[in-house]
Design goal:
Elements: H1 2-23, E1 27-31, E2 36-40, H2 41-99, H3 106-120
Antiparallel strand pairs: 1-2
Helix pairs in contact: 1-2
């Protein structure tokens, strides 16, 4: 819905600019800094709008590129942290097993492990 609203507003804005440009067809002087020429005002308006759109697209594309790079970096960091957590969980589990009473049998250790997993679920 948000995208459709933006599209409708963009089309209305483009229509408004086109009507404004067509109503202004008189020739005007354009100063380039190194020369002067006469152009129809409609071309000056449409060229200005087009150049503005290109600048906005370039800036938006640059922002999207930076955001995609950041997402990639954060995913990599998340993956590394997940691996570190798994390693620490395994080390903690091994430590808990070593800390248990030496008289416990292996089956009791496994039962305790299953109970702990069920309690966390």
């Amino acid at each position: 819905m948000k995208g459709q609203t933006r599209l409708i507003f963009a089309l209305l804005f483009a229509l408004l600019i086109a009507v404004f440009a067509v109503l202004n067809v008189n020739p005007v002087q354009v100063h380039y800094g190194f020369g002067v020429s006469e152009w129809p005002l409609v071309l000056v308006i449409l060229t200005s709008v087009l150049m503005g759109g290109i600048v906005v697209a370039f800036v938006g594309g640059f922002r999207i590129f930076n955001l995609q790079r950041e997402v990639k970096r954060l995913r990599k960091e998340n993956s590394q942290l997940t691996e570190t957590k798994k390693k620490l969980d395994n080390e903690t589990e091994e430590f808990e097993i070593k800390r248990m009473d030496p008289d416990e049998t292996v089956t009791e250790i496994e039962e305790n492990k299953k109970e702990t997993e069920e309690n966390h679920s």
